[in-house]
């Protein structure tokens, strides 16, 4: 489904924010309870590193272990929820045109890429998160293991796991309904040393809307 058709689905919805996030850049937005954040992979195979926090208490934040343990599933699909450190639902995936989003590999950083590849990218998700969280009075200690939308990390029977080519295509999207007032923070992944961004970092679109 192309981008125009995806936006046609929102014809009768109240659009609260509509932002194209440039390649390799961060973004954040407040999503009130009941409203929906739509993330669109504009060109395909572009990983989106994602965190969320209780908008009124940043100490309650996305918690990867709870998100995995409660449903007994390491991949996120339609119907999956993002759970907080207090074991409360923060956001639920209500629509998803791609599926199998990663919960285990976290974000890239300059130091990690030096270890893995002996090289770095011009930007990294760790620094993007630090920059964006700083706008909300937070810092490096508030960065936890994140979701990677549109990134594929298969786990083999021997326990080996690695990033492989994503199955997301241009226009693929995921809709996240807020189950509480949340601060959503993302890094449009700059990683070009592995398949996380396909042919290279590309823009995405973040739309916050009030459903009909």
Task: Please characterize this protein's 3D structure.
This protein has helices spanning 3-8, 64-69, 110-117, 125-134, and strands at residues 14-21, 26-31, 36-41, 48-54, 57-61, 75-76, 81-83, 89-96, 101-102, 147-149, 172-178, 182-188, 204-210. With 212 residues, the protein is of the alpha+beta class. Strands 1-13-3-11-8-7 form a 6-stranded antiparallel sheet. Strands 2, 4, 5, 10 and 12 form a 5-stranded antiparallel sheet that branches.
> What is the mean pLDDT?
96
**Overall 3D shape:** globular
Low-confidence stretches: none
Strand content: 25-35%
Helix content range:
10-25%
Helix run count: 4
Sheet with the most strands, sense and barrel status:
6 strands, antiparallel
Number of strands: 13
- Compressed to H and E, one letter per element, the order equals HEEEEEHEEEEHHEEEE
SSE class: alpha+beta
Task: State the end-to-end CA separation.
Answer: 21 Å
Give the strand order of the largest sheet, numbering strands 1, 2, ... along the chain.
Answer: 1-13-3-11-8-7
Using only C-alpha atoms, the radius of gyration works out to: 16 Å
